[in-house]
Amino acid sequence: MAGEGLAVEVAGLKLRSPTMNASGVLGMSAPLLKRVYDSGAGAVVTKSLGPAARSGHINPTVIEVEGGILNAMGLPNPGIEGYLEELRELKGEGVPVVASFFATTVPEFQSDAKALARAGADALELNLSCPNVGGEPGMCAADALSVERVTRSVKQVVQIPVFVKLSPNVTDIAGIAVAAEKGGADAITAVNTLKAMAIDADFRRPVLSNVTGGLSGSAIKSVALRCVWEIAEVVKVPIIGCGGVSNWRDAIEYMLAGASAVEIGTAVMNHGFEVYGKVNDGVTRYLSDNGLGSVSEVVGLAHKR
Ligand SMILES: Cc1cc2nc3c(=O)[nH]c(=O)nc-3n(C[C@H](O)[C@H](O)[C@H](O)COP(=O)(O)O)c2cc1C
Description:
The protein is α/β, with parallel strands linked by helices. The protein has a single domain (about 10-55, about 80-195, about 215-305), classed as TIM Barrel (Alpha-Beta Barrel). About 35% of the residues lie in helices and about 20% in strands. It has helices at about 30-40, 80-90, 105-120, 135-140, 145-155, 175-180, 220-230, 250-255, 265-270, 275-290, and strands at about 10, 15, 20, 45, 60-65, 70, 95-100, 125, 160-165, 185-190, 195, 200, 205, 210-215, 240, 260-265. The strands form four sheets. It has an eight-stranded parallel beta sheet with strand order 3-16-15-10-9-8-7-4. Helix 1 (about 30-40) runs parallel beside helix 2 (about 80-90). It starts with 7 loop residues before the first strand and ends in a 16-residue tail after the last helix. The chain binds flavin mononucleotide.
């Protein structure tokens, strides 16, 4: 699997390759995430878990649009307690696990972070950015002070690395990333989906039951790449690029913009699980064709103009 030079270290977490799955796109069962790992990913990311089980929005929640998909799942999940067994199963198989989670209050963020760390998560990814849950965590990612406060509160109660996943639906993502770093974030994941919608001309109404949703896939790559670029200009912590990566060239572009690793979500729907191995192989070839010894030598190169 992973070629030489592919190994990366993200916030102290040693990964055999710079690819991971993006939270939620594939659901969350341990066997599915194990397949992601077996396909070459350096670590797997769980779907975002909340303090309590929730069923999410009613259908339609996912539709195909030009260049990607539009979803308004409403964060359906079994709740953290309901997922811990699955997480332990993954750990039992030797898979590095990044546990994604969300909450609505600081005490909830803290108790959930502790539960996930106790169950063996190798890192946490704070989902502060989901645009689909009215008045809840989606709001947090737009407010620098909230991002800093929540990040700090989680960092106070766990020893494992904490990634903070940001929303592109803000005017100044670099400012929000700085707030996360001030709160102690060990890495920034950029980005979640772009707020969007679809309207059916025949039925003359919005297609998603939630009216608006989040756009993902190649349609958002240029926006997400710009976010990574802007964040890389102002923070020192590692960045994990996410949004529309579907081949090695996309991954390299993110690294040149400043990402140490990438998460791949929607592309799995079109390209299957093989996408992780193919991206890894392409990155390995790029390194050797360009006389580079490791991914870390590529990170941020495009800023040195
Ligand atoms: C169906 C679906 C479900 C998602 N669920 C989550 C989630 O639970 N937590 C989260 O942080 N992001 C979630 N996302 C966002 C993705 O993790 C990712 O940030 C976004 O899709 C952009 O990456 P991509 O273009 O590679 O898919 C979801 C995206 C999709 C399409």
